[in-house]
Amino acid sequence: MKKLGFGFFLVLLAASVVFAGGQKDADDGTVRITVASDATWPPMEFVDATGVIVGFDIDLLNAVAEAGGFEVEVQNTAWDGIFAGLANGDYDAVISSVTITEERQRSMAFSTPYINAGQVLIVPAGSSAKNLSDLSGQQVGAQIGTTGAFEIEKVAGVTLLTYDEIGLAVEDLANGRISGVVCDSPIAADYVLQNDNYSNKLQIAGDPFTEEFFGIAVQKGNAEVLEMINAGLQVVLNDGTVEDLKDKWLR
Amino acid sequence: MAQIESETRAQITVSDGALIPDRGESSVFSAWRISFFGALVLVVLLPVLAPDPYLEILQRLPEGIARTFQVTIVSILIALVIGLITGLGRISRITVVNRIATVYVEVIRGIPLLVQLFYIYFALGRFLALDRVVSAILAMSICYGAYMGEIFRAGIQAIPKGQMEAALALGMSRAQALRFVILPQTIRVILPPVGNEFIALLKDSSLVSIVAVTDLLRAGREYASTTFYYFETYTMVALIYLVLTLFFSKIVAIMEEKLNHDR
Fold it and tell me: Could you read off the pLDDT of A214-249 as tens digits, one per residue?
């Protein structure tokens, strides 16, 4: 009886190794990769009313996979551990409105850029602030570890408050606890213009003040996955799919 | 003359175990000493030996440490007060008071602390503008007050019935008996679990980062998320939490020893 139990335990252990993250080949030889995304960033990646992860990035990923001839599985992962997981090999890639920056390029590899967004400032409706320096001496929120947070830190006199999710920062802004929120322009547009809860309480101040190119992040040294993604991305960028997606999600 | 042999009563001590030294222990290498001074040495040595990134990390953390201290100490004091009132309420003979206290304990113990933090700051925040640190402290005090209430109740009920009976026989009212006879003895009994709760609260204080209060853990996360030095950052954060908790557990041990001087 004990031997049976031990043997069963070994089988269970072996089975769990098989299901660990990483590339798998399906029966017909197609490669399947796992991609992580912080699905709290509408309209780029978010969870819709039925619980499915949707968004611009998700549609783009599916298009890239189809063009590149591989399969993808999206995993919802909290933002501020997402790069640690990538470095560990918990998943193969990250698509989550990741801006390509020099610091990030030191720890991970990026695909070709697929869209240019910019950071934009959201303020309460009726506020006269036009940019971050107008909010000197006040508190401005952003999601922890995003380029929005980095931008706020660069401005002297403005206090940065970091939130686990951008939605919490926007909620605080709508309740008047903070004076502004900095995030990517598509996300700002979604909250201020599309979201019924906030559309009459918030406004976007000024134009995007940075140039941010988003890329798909891959573990440094994982040339195979990077090439697959870049090949698919090349096709998608050239055949107008990206423009269609922008019309669908960002306008 | 009959000889009365005195028995040494088996002593049941509730304590943090190996970390709190016994009275008779005089070893230089006690578990507490190894852990505390080991952690302290590492906190000092790592930034000296590898300033990049450990010194940078150490420079980013003091604001978080101060905030963690503030939240923990204020919360524990308020929780003690709430706990005392709740504990007395739970043993009260007035039905209304008893019911309120029981409902409070059951409801608050049934909801996770993180949910309570969210609720008090974001949900109530639509109606009541509360400063984020105030609402964080409030949420922690309310949550731990419920647990303290049960500790106080257990402590009061642990005092032998004879004490209350003797006090009543001497002509005290129940309230006077509680105040002058029972509660002073309760303090000695509940000190170990209160010490436990204090240390648990110190570690749970890291949850206040959800309402954008920069505590020790949050300060570390903010640094790690920009530089990707996850291992080094969390090593320093863990060591500093360890130093803090060991320091407070030593204080609790000293208090216990002072109160147990006759045993």
Answer: 999 999 888 999 999 999 999 999 988 888 888 888
- Nearest Cβ partner for B212 among A84, A145, A161: A161
Amino acid of residue A163: Y
Q: Inter-chain contact A163–B214, Cβ cutoff 8 Å?
A: no
Task: Please check whether residue A203 is in contact with residue A122, taking contact to mean a CB–CB distance below 8 angstroms.
Answer: yes
> Could you give the CA distance from residue B68 to residue B110 in angstroms, rounded to a whole number?
25
**What is the spatial distance between Cα B72 and Cα B230, in angstroms, rounded to a whole number?**
25
Q: Which of A233, A148, A155 is nearest to A191 (CA)?
A: A148
A71-76 and A31-37 as β-strands: parallel, antiparallel, unpaired? parallel
Asked if residue A43 has a cis previous peptide bond (ω within 30° of 0), the answer is yes
Residue with tokens 């695909």: A111
CA distance B92 to B99: 9
How far is the alpha carbon of B45 from chain A, nearest alpha carbon, in Å?
26
Structure tokens at B113: 């602390």
pLDDT digit string, tens, across residues B203-216: 999 999 888 899 99
Interface pTM, i.e. ipTM: 0.73
